[in-house]
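Action item from last meeting closed. Structure (236 res):
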């Protein structure tokens, strides 16, 4: 059983561990996977292309954040990999996001409909960090919603946000504006370095379109069983 709403975060330091995990799905339908820059920097674009050919839905989480022209050129290069989702930072501003959107529209084809997702705030961010370290006076939720509105108006397909903020974001943008939620922790799994965590069921009940699950699957001895339990939970 595979649920396209569940992305497995491949946050591993080596290809051996990644391939060992993915081998569990060798003779099964392929799950959706998230590739961050730890893995991308090590294995490179050719490996990503290969995984796409093998049938994986790929969420490339590179969190692009630069001047508009540089981000546009980066998006153009990454579209050649055929990935399904790509992240950039909402805090890069409207011009940066619009440049990325323009590039996608110019180079997309029927077989390459890559979606742009804007990162609002990382799920490790807290209200205290936002106030004391970044000097933002808004509450974390208010700031996340404002960044989501900016991303929506500037042309992204959705945002990366905590499951705690999905309802407010959907209300402030559009029901079809995608909400992708990391920081997912099933009952009994330690939150670790995350601050704003929710269970898989809570994220979906709040309106999340996709969830990203890492350690609860990748740090178990029976990853397929852990994955299927999460799929069953959100389907119920």
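Sequence:
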């Amino acid at each position: 059983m595979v649920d396209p709403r569940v992305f497995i975060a491949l946050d591993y330091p080596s290809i051996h561990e990644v391939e060992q995990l993915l081998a569990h799905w060798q003779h099964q339908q392929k799950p959706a996977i998230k590739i961050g820059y730890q893995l991308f920097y090590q294995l490179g674009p050719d490996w990503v292309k290969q995984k796409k050919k093998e049938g994986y839905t790929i969420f490339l989480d590179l969190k692009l954040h630069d001047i508009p022209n540089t981000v546009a050129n980066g998006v153009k290069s990454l579209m050649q990999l055929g990935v399904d989702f790509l992240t950039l930072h909402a805090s890069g501003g409207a011009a940066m996001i619009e440049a990325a959107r323009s590039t996608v529209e110019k180079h997309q084809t029927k077989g390459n409909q890559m979606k742009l997702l804007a990162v609002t705030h990382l799920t490790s961010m807290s209200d205290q960090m936002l106030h004391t370290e970044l000097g933002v006076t808004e509450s974390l939720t208010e700031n996340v919603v404002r960044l989501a509105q900016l991303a929506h108006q500037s042309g992204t397909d959705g945002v990366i946000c905590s499951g705690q903020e999905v309802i407010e974001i959907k209300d402030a943008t559009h029901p079809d504006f995608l909400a992708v939620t990391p920081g997912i922790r099933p009952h009994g799994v330690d939150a670790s370095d995350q601050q704003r965590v929710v269970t898989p069921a809570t994220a979906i009940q709040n309106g999340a379109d996709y969830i990203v699950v890492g350690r609860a699957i990748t740090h178990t001895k029976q990853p397929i069983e852990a994955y299927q339990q999460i799929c069953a939970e959100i389907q119920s």
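Note appended to the action item: The two ends are 14 Å apart (CA to CA).
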